[in-house]
Amino acid sequence: MLKITKLTKRYGSGDPVLKELDLTVEGDQLTSVIGSSGAGKSTLLRCINRLVEPTSGSVDLNGTEFTALHRRELRNARRRIGMVFQSFNLIDRLTVMENVQSGRLGYISTWAALTRRYPREDIRHAYELMERVGIAHYADRRADELSGGERQRVGVVRALMQRPEILLADEPTASLDPKTSEQIMSLLRDLASELKLPVIINIHNVTEAKEYSDRIVGMRYGRIIFDDKPGKLEKAEMDEIYAGVPAMDRAEVGAVA
Amino acid sequence: MNAVKDTWHKPPFIKSPALRYGLYAAVAIYVVLTLATLPIDWDRVSDGMRRAQRIFSGAFPPNFERSGLLIDGFLESLKIAILATVGGIALSVPLAFMAARNISVKPVYFLGRGIIIVARSFHPVIVAIIFVKAVGFGPFAGALTLVVYSVGFVAKLLAERIEEIDFGQVEAMRSVGAGFIPTLAYAVFPQIMPRLVGLGIYQLDSNLRASAVVGIVGAGGIGATLANAFGRYDYDFALAITMVIVGVILVSEAVSGFIRKRIA
User: Fold this and answer.
1) Binary contact (B182, A51; C-beta < 8 A)
2) A51 vs B: CB within 8 A
3) What is the pLDDT of residues A243-253, one digit of tens each?
4) With an 8 Å Cβ cutoff, is A43 touching chain B?
């Protein structure tokens, strides 16, 4: 269970990007986070595994308080959170297998990583996962030879290699065409239930979000203003999530504070 | 109503006319003053012409009789160049990581940059003179000189390449909990690899050229052979050496250009 409480993130001295945000995700739900650009979706995901350092608040994953961890502890804790990126962030010049195995870098020794002597168990697991998402025949190809959809599958497999307790996906389909985008979304949904894995997805495409998620969280300027089943997301709620100019919203905050 | 304009002039490079014409005038005055004050002795120029003619007439036809000496000199230069390139790159890679702003911490960054600046600030000939004093005449001094020369060039350009990498890959490696060295090896090194190979090949070519120069101050190789030939007024042998140097450099530049194009 991931339990976020009173999470605040402020860049520099400006207005906070996240404002005392609370969110709890559990089970094998697929949760979609929607909201306009600048609402803080990416910051929220990155505060969970501390790619972005939260200013205050708490992030608790199955009993581990992430905000209190120091370097080595943080590295070890990050192994438990898988992450998938909008621009895939694959290592283009390495093979698909090396990319997939890079998901295990937190576990294997530096020597094994440098010499590519991956444990048999990891190699077997990699082939199983690649088979599952349909990229096993690409194992020896360079990552930049693959199409967008295939590359995102590599990204997903890399995250799953960690045997994560939760999967974060930061706009995983935003760089893909509509057809491929749907394939990746249904893959994520299926994997969530197969692996009993909670998944949090940042997404711009509301139609896709409604179709594939169990739960939708709507963010506006650092706050969650909608949190319910996809069916409950009607036009009024949509307008509220996507309406308004940032300046107005900031003025409002200023008045409260 | 509004007449549409049909003339347009490119805006001048320096906007203010006063500054613009002031600068032109300053440059012109400087050139005139320099020519007026520099001691240019036209008699010596014409003397020099005659002397140059004597050297060139003594040089023709080039003399390849002592080709054994020539080949030995070249092989030594080649050895110096290869040794210096390997050593220079081995030092440049860690130094480049130290000197990349986005990878290293501030104090290490300044240390790395400092070492590179020192390595770059002296011309190889000056470095060679110091090494010849330190370790004596011969190819070892030449190799050490060119190691310094290679570090100054390769480490600087490699550090700049590291600063340009796609940081998303580093972020991905951080997100899986990878340590520092594996992160560099997986997220950074593959991205800079083509540049490193390109720089290495270019540097080998460049070291071969530079080894001819540093040889003149006593650091071994073909340069030493050339300096000796001049010293003994063997202009015909010197011309032979020069021709071979030009030929070898043409070939090595063609080869390195070809390889660099293929890996790009």
Assistant:
1) no
2) yes
3) 765 555 554 44
4) no
